[in-house]
Amino acid sequence: MRQIKRYRFILAGVVTISILVLLRSHGTGRFRYDANRWAEPSYSVSNIITHDEINSLPGNKLIINLDTTTILEWAPEGTQVTIPAASILSRQARKTIKAHDGVVLLWSANKSTSARAWMLLSQSGFVNLYIIAGGTGAESLNEKFRSGSDTIPEL
Amino acid sequence: MSVREKLSVTIILLGVVLLFLPLGNSLSLTVSQNTVAGRVFGQDAEISADQVARMLVAEDSTLRIIDLRPADEYRKLSIPGAINIPYPVMLAARPETFLGTGSTRNIFYSNDDMVSSYALVLAIGMGYDNCYVMTGGLNEWIRTVMNSHFTGETITARENALFETRTRAAKLFREYNALPDSLKIKYLNSMRFDPRKLDGGCE
């Protein structure tokens, strides 16, 4: 005890720094270290699921509707919550997602909105996050261009 | 206890703290969450295919187009002048080397805009505020610029200007992508206006 009393200021300083480091590393109020690691599911497109695959996911599901003007009629009752995309990292939103024990599914009519929300949440340390999108998930070039005419109509 | 002993204890304890810190080589998002969220969901996060076409035709020197698709897709078809940084290696490719300074506008595109949206968040989070997404990606470019056509009998001046830009950009795109890789850079350089080549004028 005498030794602890002797080094109390040093210990207090080290404990304070340790707490700050742990909070920084594990809190969701700031982005995590190593962006590459947290972006990993987007490289392999394993963060995207279709409507049909939702039921095959294990555990509880929380569907976050990022569009305030749409109601998700297909979502089971009690599983959806509306959070505007721009507020996805607000304290209330983070609290809601943290409190949920299971997978979190992001939906927006505009897939780029879901993608941005996903990356923001993933970089903040949230896991078990998926984007609900159609198709195979991976982007593909669907459009073909026809041989064009360079004629410009008259004014 | 002597000063040396106190110093030794402090250093040892700080060493324990350092065990919890991550290694220094990994890239992280350093901008605050609110700033990044505000920027990526803001109105100026996106640039339309028409705007990109206009900048391309005008040879805007502040424009840097970044193609995030795999290399084989880039080689088959790409927007003239775009550099290829496949998305999965974007962070490993040292972003500071291709995202440049604030005076350049970096425009990400992929086939749609999910991948470019991921890249946008990462780039802005790392402090590169001069980044944007081309709305709809290459699919939208083809729909809007390449497949543009006019069906009426008369055209307003504004529509004419838009159609003319699209036509020029589409022509540039077709000619550029018809070239073998070795000639693409030469083609882009030849399209650039060189004031030294002007003849005549007042002395």
Q: Which helices and strands occur, and which strands form pairs?
A:
The complex is a heterodimer of chains A (155) and B (203).
Chain A: H1 2-6, H2 8-26, H3 35-43, E1 48-49, E2 60-65, E3 80-82, H4 91-99, E4 102-107, H5 111-123, E5 129-132
Parallel strand pairs in A: 1-5, 2-3, 2-4, 4-5
Chain B: H1 3-18, H2 33-40, E1 46-47, H3 49-57, E2 63-67, H4 71-76, E3 83-84, H5 96-99, E4 105-109, H6 114-125, E5 131-134, H7 137-146, H8 157-178, H9 181-191
Parallel strand pairs in B: 1-5, 2-3, 2-4, 4-5
Helix pairs in contact in B: 2-6, 3-8
User: Count of helices of chain B?
Assistant: 9
Overall mean pLDDT of chain B stands at 85
Chain-averaged pLDDT of chain A: 83
Oligomeric form of this entry? heterodimer
Amount of beta strand of chain A: 5-15%
Question: Count of DSSP E strands of chain A?
Answer: 5
Give, in spatial order, the strands making up the sheet with the most strands of chain B.
1-5-4-2-3
- The helix content of chain A, as a percent range, equals 25-40%
Describe what this molecule looks like in 3D.
The complex is a heterodimer of chains A (155) and B (203). Helix content of chain A is 35%, strand content 14%. Chain A contains 5 helices and 5 strands, in the order H-H-H-E-E-E-H-E-H-E. Chain A has a 5-stranded parallel beta sheet, covered by helices on one side. Chain A is elongated, with a radius of gyration of 23 Å. The model of chain A is unreliable at 149-155 (pLDDT under 50). Chain B has 203 residues and is α/β, with parallel strands linked by helices. Chain B has 9 helices and 5 strands, in the order H-H-E-H-E-H-E-H-E-H-E-H-H-H. Chain B has helices at 3-18, 33-40, 49-57, 71-76, 96-99, 114-125, 137-146, 157-178, 181-191, and strands spanning 46-47, 63-67, 83-84, 105-109, 131-134. In chain B, helix 2 packs antiparallel against helix 6 and helix 3 (49-57) packs across helix 8. The longest helix of chain B is centred in the last third of the chain and has 22 residues, at 157-178.
